Amino acid sequence: MQGSLFQRIKRLTGKAVGDFNLIEEGDRIAVGVSGGKDSYTLLHVLDALRRRAPIKYELVAVNVDSGFPGFRKEVVEKHLADHGFEYRVESTNCYEIIEEKRKPGTSYCSFCARLRRGVLYTLADELGCNKIALGHHLDDFIETLLLNQFYVGSLKAMSPKLAADNGRHTVIRPLVYVEEGEIIRFSREQQFPIVCCACPVCGEVDQKRQRMKGLIRELATENRHLKKSMLTALGNVQPRHLLDKNLTDFDLGLP
User: What is the CATH number of the domain that holds 41?
Assistant: First the structure.
């Protein structure tokens, strides 16, 4: 892959890898590939970086088929095979479990995400992977920050590097510095075979996130550096000026 846009995304991803020590010698990384623009971009960029990296690491593309009727996993599998990636496509009964176990009024997406995350951890164990790479980008980070502030009442977003819930794996998000618009353009350039997750509530449950996108887009017309400023804020936390009663005197700089 060539082109200035690809080089820019690769450079930003490499910077994130270096800034947060996301990839180390000997890592074997399970890359979650959903069939969407973000995960395709992540996989191809990490592979390009791998070819010139001063350290050795391995990639395994992993697709989790939740069992939603109409999901075209064969399209994803063909793309992975055509490009010579080591991969695993895992069929599950997540859809049946969601339909049977989800309590009325609870979040469909949250339940599905927990099930898929469990499958990813299990696959990482089976494939001998110590890290799991996800395709969250810059916009995801700052939108999540606002969502948690506006609707949850917490000051948190995402982390580019996080110990997994099971204590055995590390979750990494190498696209943290890459804006969604760049990924959209790159995905169109490469003509990635995008497939919908086929979730029955797709498009209905992300209204709050769409509102955050709209708010950021509106404010960015006044300040073109808005997104970068918000991302920088996530790495410039000043506990002394917050209201968390759990902070210690040490955190607050008190004697």
Answer: 3.40.50.620
